[in-house]
Amino acid sequence: MSPATTESRDLFAIADLAKEFGISTRAIRFYESKGLLAPERVGATRVFRRRDRARLILILRGKRLGFSLRDISDYLSLYDANRSQQVHLLIDKVDERLASLERQRDDLETTINELREIKKLTSEQPARSR
Questions:
Q1: Of 10, 76, 11, 125, which is closest to residue 67 (Cα–Cα)?
Q2: What confidence category does residue 5 fall into, taking pLDDT thresholds of 50, 70 and 90?
């Protein structure tokens, strides 16, 4: 299905969304169980609207960027709220995530340098026979 066709649609089945985003229907049901998505029901069938699809895009982007489901939920709770509140929350969460990633990067760089030093020290010593 082309993006233009997808954008013009109003209703989506769970299988349509799973295929479009390369995720399982189980993942979509999980997000639903966490209150992140609220599809309508026609009998036992879930019917997703454009709004649900947009929320799914935000959920998947948030997960890809490393945000927790709690962070994503907080952001989505402002989805229909004041745009200014939404932007401020997003900025705060992005700042937190950046700080976390920078700490992880610093820790990785320290570990890499220590391992290189160990390798250098051990390669300088002659091999001992046992």
A1: 76
A2: low
Residue 77 burial by CB count (10 A; 0-12/13-18/19+): exposed, middle or buried? middle
d(CA 83, CA 102): 28
Q: Is the CB of residue 8 less than 8 Å from the CB of residue 46?
A: no
Please return the burial class of 46, using the count of CB atoms within 10 Å of its CB with bins 0-12, 13-18 and 19+.
Answer: buried
**Sheet bearing 11-12, strands edge to edge:** 11-12, 45-49, 40-42
Q: Quick one: what percent of the chain has pLDDT higher than 90?
A: 66
In this prediction the pTM is: 0.70
Judged by DSSP in three states, 78 sits in coil
Distance CA(77)–CA(94), nearest Å, equals: 17
